[in-house]
Write a structure and sequence with these properties.
4 helices
């Protein structure tokens, strides 16, 4: 009976592990969709009702804008990297740039918004930084690989 209990525990743990990895992947996709929706809402929502002057402002305002863009796109890169596809950082950066380019093109048709190439770059960097955080965390907290030594 003891062996049967051990076997059932191992089978149960394997099933739970499989279900968790399957669930985590589904959760990551849902999370990614939610993040994309939030980014689109945050970047395309109605701005001020007056036409905005799009000439570059002071350095402090530009640094603040870039910092906001980096932070806004961090979760996007984290969600893409959580899916554990190969080349997570490149995929995250590419999605960040593509989404940002879409947003900037849409903003170029709105007189109350300013489209900027710097935003596209900083958003792509933010997504890449999010992926780096996840990849680094996986590398840092992953179980060490065991190596076989020839007998």
């Amino acid at each position: 009976m003891h062996r049967f209990q051990i076997l059932m525990t191992v089978v149960t743990l394997a099933a739970v592990t499989f279900a968790a990895s399957w669930l985590a992947r589904r959760v990551a996709w849902v999370t990614l969709a939610g993040i994309v929706a939030l980014v689109l809402y945050a970047t395309l929502r109605a701005g001020p009702t007056v036409v905005v002057n799009c000439t570059p402002g002071d350095l402090k305002a530009r640094v603040f804008d870039v910092t906001q863009n980096l932070i806004l796109f961090l979760p996007l890169g984290m969600a893409v990297a959580t899916l554990r596809s190969t080349k997570q950082i490149a995929a995250s950066a590419a999605l960040g740039v593509a989404l940002s380019a879409f947003v900037e093109i849409a903003q170029s048709f709105d007189p109350t918004r300013c489209a900027s190439g710097i935003d596209v770059v900083s958003n792509g960097l933010g997504a890449a930084m999010g992926a780096v955080i996840i990849v680094g965390a996986h590398a840092l907290f992953a179980a060490p690989a065991t190596t076989r030594h020839p007998s």
